[in-house]
Write a structure and sequence with these properties.
The protein is of the alpha+beta class and about 290 residues long. The protein has two domains: about 1-20 and about 35-200 and about 260-285, Cytochrome Bc1 Complex, Chain D, domain 2, CATH 1.10.760.10; about 205-250, SH3 type barrels, CATH 2.30.30. The chain has nine helices and nine strands. It has helices at about 50-60, 65, 90-100, 115-130, 145-150, 180-185, 185-195, 260-265, 265-280; strands spanning about 1-5, 10-15, 165, 170, 205-210, 215-225, 230-235, 240, 245-250. It starts with a strand and ends in an 8-residue tail after the last helix. Mean pLDDT is about 80; it is low at about 1-35.
Length: about 290
């Protein structure tokens, strides 16, 4: 997911795409609807009134990230079978209830009662059952093997691996893409490739830091405390600076990625890269 950079003479491709907390003790046994999630069926599954309530909550809390129809946006499609943190009802309950640290998925333990979460899940299941065309259909003509080669080609136009890590290999300038096929929708990924500044992933906003001796470093903040600041530079190097030596820090509103990948690669090559990114879903590779 995202477009490339120029580091030196190389054009680097970076896909930026690159989505929960306290429990009070109750002395009375919880009802079936409010009990902690287990292997039993959702008590509201298939019940029209509960599904309608779930739809109302979805529109309020979920549609902004997962899309109005559940097919995803900035966050995953909820109508397919790719669930990084588990797709069983009790696993989805826990994801909504506790959230996922380090992602856009906040916790709803305080905001929603257990029965409300179950109703929300009932609605999500109903839209998944309704079916519909896969959001990946436009890229079904892509060749994933060729896309992987383009992604990793050190002499190619994309050179995605220079910025992104996949399964422990690659750069740190952009987000880790090891599960990008399940974390982001294809529309979001493609937009990130051709319009890298449209939505910069949290934690990868670039800063320009100038020291008192005139040295300039561009990169994103890795760590910061009262005395020091550490950056991952656009040269993929960890740079540590004493705050007492810093003269100014400015925010770069645009991505450091160069726009226009669609002009450097053919439509078929873009589709090949998209096909490869789809395979990065956290599931074991098929043999």
């Amino acid at each position: 997911m995202k477009v490339f950079l120029k580091i030196g003479s190389a054009v680097l491709f970076a896909l930026f795409l690159i989505t929960a907390t306290s429990c009070s003790r109750n002395t009375t046994p919880p009802s079936k609807a409010t009990a902690a999630p287990n292997k039993s069926a959702n008590p509201f599954q298939g019940k029209p009134e509960a599904i309608q309530e779930g739809q109302n909550m979805y529109r309020s809390y979920c549609s902004g990230c997962h899309g109005g129809s559940g097919h995803g946006g900035k966050c995953p499609d909820l109508t397919d079978d790719l669930w990084i943190h588990g797709g069983a009802d009790e696993e989805v309950f826990l994801t909504i209830n506790k959230g996922v640290s380090g992602t856009e998925m906040r916790n709803f333990e305080v905001g929603l009662k257990p029965e409300e979460i179950w109703k929300l899940i009932a609605y999500i299941r109903s839209i998944a059952a309704a079916g519909g065309e896969s959001a990946w259909k436009p890229f079904e003509d892509g060749d994933a093997a060729h896309g992987k080669a383009l992604f990793s080609d050190a002499k190619g136009q994309a050179q995605c691996y220079r910025c992104h890590m996949v399964l422990g290999e690659g750069g740190r300038i952009g987000p880790d893409l090891s599960r990008i096929g399940a974390k982001r929708t294809p529309d979001y990924i493609l937009e990130s490739i051709v319009k890298p500044s449209a939505d910069i992933v949290d934690g990868y906003l670039q800063f320009t830091v100038t020291t008192k001796n005139g040295t300039e470093t561009i990169g994103y903040k890795k760590n910061e405390d009262n005395f020091t600041m550490q950056l991952i530079s656009t040269e993929d190097e960890l740079v540590s600076l004493e705050k007492s030596d810093i003269a100014s820090v400015s925010t770069n509103k645009n991505s450091v990625m160069v726009e226009g990948l669609e002009k450097l690669l053919s439509k078929k090559e873009l589709h090949d890269i998209m096909a490869y990114l789809k395979t990065l879903n956290g599931k074991p590779a098929s043999k």
